[in-house]
C-alpha cells in the first residue's frame, strides 16, 4: 500500500459524514428492485386516506415535484403514477444497523446521529488508505452489499463534513477543507448552513446578514447581543470552525418523543385515550431501553388547520412507567383542550431525563409489594415487543371499540392494528 501519511494532517482530525440518500425509499428498492427501481416512489403513512403525509420520496419523484411533508393526495395529483409505500421501520432499522457495521469496520470512532447518517473519525485509520480511498470503499461496500446509495463528506471537523455530504447527491463524495470555505460556502444563504434554521436565518436577514460570508465577517459582540451564546457559534460556523468531537457514546437524550398523524380527525377523550396510551407506551419503552427515567411530560396537539399547541407538566416523581406518563398526558388533554374540537395529530414527549441508577424513584406506600411483579411483567412485555414487533402485546386500553372489533375479525391472520392507524415519525431529511 502506498504511503498515505501525506494525506493526513500532522495535527487535527479527518472526519467523514455518511448520509444515506432517500433512505426509506432506497431500502424498499433494495428489497424489491423489480417493483421499485428507477420509479417515482414515496413512503407515507395512512396511504389510502386523505391525511397521509409524504415522509420521504425517491429522487425520481423529487424531479417530478414531489417533496417531503406533502400530502399524499396532492402528490398523486402531481404524479398519478407515484408508488406510495407504507413505512416499515423494522426493515429500516435492519438496513441502518447494516450500513453502520460497514462504516464501523474502518474506525471505532463512529457516532450515529440518526437512522440514516453517522460521523466517522478516521484520523487513526491510515492503514485503510487515504481519506478519499476510505470514503470510496465505504460507499462502494454499502452499494454492493446492501444496494443503497449514500453521499459522504470529508472534512477536518463535523460541521464541514456534514456540509460536504450535502454538496453532491445522490451518491457523491466531497472534500471540504477550511481553505475551501470562502470559495464554496460564503456565497450561500445563511439558512444553508447546518444548524441555522428558518427563524435564525430570518433574524440574521433583519440584521443585514444574508450570506454565510457576511456571517463570517460579522462582529461577534453584535451576534452575541442578538443571539446569546449561540452568537459565538454562528461566527465560528460562518468560518467553518467546529470543535465538536465524534463521540461513539452518544450524549444522553434530552428528550424522547413520539407523534402520530391520524388517518381521520378525532374528537373527545374517548377517541383520544387509546391513541395517548399507545404513544405513552412507546415512549416509555424507549425510555426503559436507554436505562432512563423522566421527570416531565409534554403533550402536543395539532388541529386540522395545522395549528400546534404544546402543554407540559412535571411528574410527581421520576418515572419509567407508561401508566404514569399516560395519566399525565390525559390530564393535560382534559385541562388544556376543548374536547369538542377536532385533533389531527397527537404527540407525547418525555423531558428531564436522567439515568435510572441516579434517580430516587418513589414507591407507592400501598403498592410497593406489587412493584417487583410489575417490573417483571413490563420487562417481559418489552422483550416480546423487541423480538416480535410493536404489536406483539397490546393492552385492552390501547384498543377502541372499532379496534377491538378488528382484532376479533383479524386475529387469525395476525393483522397489525397499530401500523394501519398510526404513523411513527422518523423523518428522512435527505
Automatic annotation (TrEMBL):
One of its GO terms (cellular component) is cytosol. Pfam families: IMS, IMS_C, IMS_HHH. The keyword DNA damage applies. Residues 15-197 form the UmuC domain. InterPro entries: DNA/RNA_pol_sf, DNA_pol_Y-fam_lit_finger_sf, DNA_pol_Y-fam_little_finger, DNA_polymerase-Y, DNApol_IV, PolY_HhH_motif, Rev_trsase/Diguanyl_cyclase, UmuC. The record marks 24 as: Substrate discrimination. Its cofactor is Mg(2+). Binds 2 magnesium ions per subunit. Its main location: cytoplasm. It comes from the Bacteria. The active site is at residue 117. Keywords: Cytoplasm, DNA damage, DNA repair, DNA replication, DNA-binding, DNA-directed DNA polymerase, Magnesium, Metal-binding, Mutator protein, Nucleotidyltransferase, Transferase. GO terms for molecular function: damaged DNA binding; DNA-directed DNA polymerase activity; magnesium ion binding. The keyword Plastid does not apply. PANTHER family: DNA POLYMERASE KAPPA, DNA REPAIR POLYMERASE UMUC / TRANSFERASE FAMILY MEMBER. HAMAP family: DNApol_IV. This is DNA polymerase IV. It comes from Paenibacillus odorifer.
Amino acid at each position: 500500500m502506498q504511503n498515505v501519511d501525506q494525506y493526513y494532517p500532522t495535527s487535527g482530525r479527518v472526519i467523514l459524514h455518511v448520509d444515506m440518500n432517500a433512505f426509506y425509499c432506497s431500502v424498499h428498492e433494495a428489497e424489491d428492485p423489480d417493483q421499485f427501481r428507477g420509479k417515482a416512489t414515496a413512503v407515507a403513512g395512512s396511504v389510502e386516506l386523505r391525511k397521509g403525509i409524504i415522509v420521504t420520496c425517491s429522487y425520481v419523484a423529487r424531479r417530478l415535484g414531489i417533496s417531503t411533508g406533502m400530502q399524499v393526495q396532492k402528490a398523486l395529483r402531481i404524479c398519478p403514477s407515484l408508488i406510495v409505500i407504507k413505512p416499515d421501520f423494522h426493515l429500516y432499522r435492519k438496513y441502518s444497523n447494516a450500513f453502520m457495521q460497514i462504516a464501523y469496520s474502518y474506525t471505532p470512532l463512529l457516532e450515529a446521529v440518526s437512522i440514516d447518517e453517522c460521523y466517522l473519525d478516521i484520523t487513526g485509520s491510515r492503514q485503510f488508505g487515504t481519506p478519499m480511498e476510505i470514503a470510496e470503499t465505504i460507499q462502494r461496500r454499502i452499494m454492493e452489499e446492501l444496494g443503497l446509495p449514500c453521499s459522504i463528506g470529508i472534512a477536518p471537523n463535523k460541521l464541514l463534513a456534514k456540509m460536504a455530504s450535502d454538496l453532491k447527491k445522490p451518491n457523491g463524495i466531497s472534500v471540504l477543507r477550511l481553505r475551501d470555505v470562502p470559495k464554496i460556502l460564503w456565497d450561500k444563504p445563511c439558512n444553508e448552513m447546518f444548524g441555522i434554521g428558518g427563524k435564525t436565518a430570518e433574524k440574521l436577514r433583519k440584521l443585514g446578514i444574508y450570506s454565510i460570508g457576511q456571517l463570517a465577517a460579522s462582529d461577534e459582540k453584535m451576534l452575541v447581543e442578538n443571539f446569546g451564546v449561540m452568537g459565538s457559534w454562528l461566527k465560528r460556523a460562518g468560518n467553518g470552525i467546529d470543535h465538536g468531537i465524534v463521540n461513539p457514546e452518544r450524549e444522553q437524550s434530552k428528550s424522547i418523543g413520539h407523534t402520530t398523524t391520524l388517518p381521520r380527525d378525532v374528537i373527545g377523550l374517548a377517541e383520544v385515550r387509546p391513541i395517548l396510551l399507545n404513544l405513552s407506551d412507546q415512549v416509555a419503552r424507549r425510555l426503559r431501553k436507554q436505562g432512563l427515567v423522566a421527570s416531565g411530560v409534554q403533550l402536543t396537539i395539532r388541529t386540522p388547520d395545522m395549528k400546534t399547541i404544546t402543554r407540559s407538566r412535571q411528574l410527581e416523581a421520576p418515572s419509567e412507567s407508561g401508566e404514569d406518563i399516560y395519566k399525565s398526558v390525559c390530564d393535560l388533554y382534559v385541562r388544556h383542550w376543548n374536547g369538542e374540537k377536532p385533533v389531527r395529530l397527537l404527540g407525547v414527549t418525555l423531558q428531564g431525563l436522567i439515568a435510572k441508577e441516579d434517580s430516587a424513584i418513589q414507591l407507592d406506600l400501598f403498592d410497593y409489594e406489587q412493584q417487583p411483579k410489575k417490573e417483571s411483567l413490563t420487562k417481559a412485555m418489552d422483550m416480546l415487543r423487541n423480538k416480535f414487533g410493536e404489536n406483539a402485546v397490546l393492552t385492552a386500553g390501547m384498543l377502541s371499540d372499532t379496534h377491538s372489533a378488528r382484532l376479533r375479525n383479524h386475529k387469525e391472520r395476525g393483522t397489525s392494528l397499530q401500523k394501519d392507524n398510526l404513523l411513527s415519525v422518523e423523518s428522512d431529511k435527505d
